[in-house]
Amino acid sequence: MDAPSHLNIMAVNEATGIELIDACDNGDQEAVKWLLESNCDVNHVDNDGMNGFMYACQRGHIDVVNLLVSKDNCDVNHVNNDGMNGFMLACQRGHIEVVELLVSKDNCDVNHLANKYGMNGFMLACYEGHVEIMELLASKRIRDVNVVDSDGMNGYMWACKGGRKLVVDLLVSKYNCDVNHTANDGMNGFMFACAGGNKEVVNLLVSKYNCDVNHVANDGRNGFMCACVGGHKEVVDLLVSKYNCDIRVISKGNKTAFDYADYRRDIKLLILQVPH
Prior knowledge:
The structure is a single chain. By secondary structure, the chain is mostly helical. It is built from 16 helices and no strands. Helix 1 runs parallel beside helix 3, helix 11 runs antiparallel to helix 12 and helix 14 (233-241) packs parallel to helix 16 (265-273). The longest helix has 14 residues, at 13-26.
């Protein structure tokens, strides 16, 4: 098989490894096939610790991924400088076809926890709101939907933080995730939703799942304070007007919600109007 005309192949293996990474990144199946048949290093990595397989997964080039995994010496579990493997990159980017392919491979570690952040592919899919991938992993290959990262956060909490209402709803109603699970710092999903100004998630957790709106983290702050810190007036208004959130809590830093509202005059005025 002749080399594709657009390839600039040098005589050394280092160069063909770089060419392979570029071809994988661009989804150039013809070039990838030729390079593999030319015995270039399928596991060559760049300065970010990424190999061609990982770039193909990240870009969603399913044909290239399929070609690479057919090679016995392709390291599908190689991790980059951030501790992420190809499977995790596909989950993060929402490439369902790639994820389905890798899930079907027994040698792919779908439960790998990235050593830099402690997250796995399932958590990344939850945070990014990729419902199909979340359901695929929850129903087939993930060992435990409640597994936590290095900060004690699980997929449900990442979905709350990302404002992914549908993912949050499914994880609680279908996969029995605990709405009151707390991270190492004492924060729960409700508080992360408040901190991010994710009004729909906040409303869902309180109205449908009766989560504790007055739970306080290790630093003494509650969800209401978190919303004030972020300047999220709609969430603040919702918690005060509909859910009778305790606005009188004082944190361990001896601060009130009024203090945390800082420069947000509109939120401070709202707090002042609430009967104490």
